[in-house]
Amino acid sequence: MKMTVQTLPMLLCCWLLALTGLQAQTPVANYTFAGNANDLSVSANTAAVHGATLAPDRFGWANNAFNFDGTQSYLEAPNNPALNSNYTTVAFWIKVNALPVSGEAYPLSFGGWQERWKISLPTHGKLVWTTNNSSGISDMDAGGGNELVAGVWKHVVFVHDGTNDLIYMDGVQVATKAVSGTMNSTTKPLGIGYNAVDGGNFLDGVLDEVQVYNMALSAGQIATLYATQNTTPTVASGLVASYLFTNNTLDATAFGNHATATDVTAPPTASASATAHTPSTAHLQASKRAIRRN
Description:
Blueprint: H1 7-20, E1 29-31, E2 48-50, E3 53-55, E4 65-69, E5 74-77, E6 88-96, E7 104-110, H2 112-115, E8 117-122, E9 128-133, E10 136-141, E11 154-160, E12 164-169, E13 172-178, E14 190-192, E15 204-213, H3 219-229, E16 259-262, E17 283-286
Antiparallel strand pairs: 1-15, 2-5, 3-4, 4-15, 5-14, 6-11, 6-15, 7-8, 7-14, 8-9, 9-10, 11-12, 12-13, 16-17
Helix pairs in contact: 1-3
């Protein structure tokens, strides 16, 4: 979901960081999926959308996450040098629609197991963190009791810090494995919702807030990240919907609560006057969204 409207959570985040003495870290890839697949980091490494569709996020806000159908839909971002760091942290929200019947689905992949890392979801529901580094290739799953459940949102974080591979769920460390060395680089693209090296392995689920850091976040920073992103956004009083009807039915506000048109046509000439339509055959419908006002 879009973070620019979350003034209260942002202030809360700053307060928590100051309180705990943590340094704020900036991701080198930051896909909030607020109506699009833009990368909001300084890299501006926007992903191309291939069949994936916008969906409600964990708060029920429409068009603030991407849904993947498990058969052919995915996002793909070009390779970027900023992603090829010695150490890394990968964080995102995931809600599976269904677990794979066989094999594995790939929520995210950058170089795959062959070159750098992948995050995969086998039939047992435990996410697997695979890293390819200077000491070899390592696999580790999230462990028993940490299986993803269909229809349930989870915040997941994967880290390689040069000494260990680690997995966190909802801000809590659930798995660790001694893995030394620096991450290997890749020339492959960043695959979101599929295997960008071999193709296939399509995810049947919803993703949001995909972030990649060029360093290993600490346990405290990950706990703060989860707490901040798990806070229901509060919207300041003001404009929350704006439909200009300039040859489309888009909502021009930051909420992106776009409408769909049924049996509605634009007037033949530009005019400030309203154009009448037959109520029984013409209507506009915007997605429902819960908005809290101060």
